[in-house]
What does this fold into?
Amino acid sequence: MIPITLAALALLPQELPAKPAAPAAVPAGSPEPAAYDPLAVPDGEAPSLALSFLDATRDRAIPVRVYLPAATTPPTPAPVIVWSHGLGGSRDNSPYLGTHWSKRGYVCVFLQHPGSDEAVWRDAPLRERMGSLRAAASMQNLGLRCEDVSKALDQLALWHADAKHELHGRLDLERVGLCGHSFGAQTTQCVGGQSAPLIGARFRDNRIDAALPMSPAPPARVDVRKAFGDVQIPWLLMTGTHDGSPILDPDRDPADRRKVYPALPTSIDRYELVLHEAEHSAFGEAPLRGETKARKAMHHRSILALSTAFWDCHLRGDAAARAWLHGDGPRRVLDAEDLWQFAAAAAKPR
It folds into this structure.
């Protein structure tokens, strides 16, 4: 069964170091450049649109929430980040991410996956909610989720080209990142290049340029190096020392989530953040039933800083972001006991 440790559970009843890259040289006489800061954002609200589209080939309606950067005249296409929620979630989960990333200049498209969204438990009788969640954590739903991502990219291209649509001219679909938490992390892994027996990397979408799984999971009973050995884009993995599954899989060892990073190929830039004492809910906005650790505000700050630098580096090609990410920048936003590691892609033989 697919691991299930998801934000919807918060709503269930409960009892009371690599060598840093050298920064680019500044020509003599040039003004001192501003220090790169992935947490800097303009004041004000982040506008968003509640939209949906129909995938007629599967007769499947996909709700989305789109967080938008500041508008320009004429419209300036912005890089796109697609978000996949956890089991029992919705397009309205984790707005702190969409708000911050959009203020940094990204169009953030938060998907809602029918069949594994909030409807799974919200409409079920109280005693049946856990069973409904377990049933929704299926390989079939994982496949549907992966297809949702690709269909969403198809739809975004149509909206971008439609002169009458709110997103007309606003999407740079040559620069796309994919991120998700828990079941959404597994969705991100599959679309981002993970392979599986018999089907290989069937769900890989080559339009994705960088992937960020939060609470990643290695496939069960599969050689992890075979599963992740053909990944071809940069990955940033985020987890916590207590990122387990306290409700549906209490025996799960949080250390299992750390098996993904060493299995990634040396041909890509790869990163791993392990937040000290962070539980599964640290990446969302509400504690889960069964969790015992106090939530730390510092965790969200670290998540926002490192994810933003990752997007800036790998979607924008920002040299300052890369120098920050590969230098001592991360340590400035992390607690002393947090673990951060990365490895740059090995040079290709000539």
Summary: The longest helix spans residues 139-161.
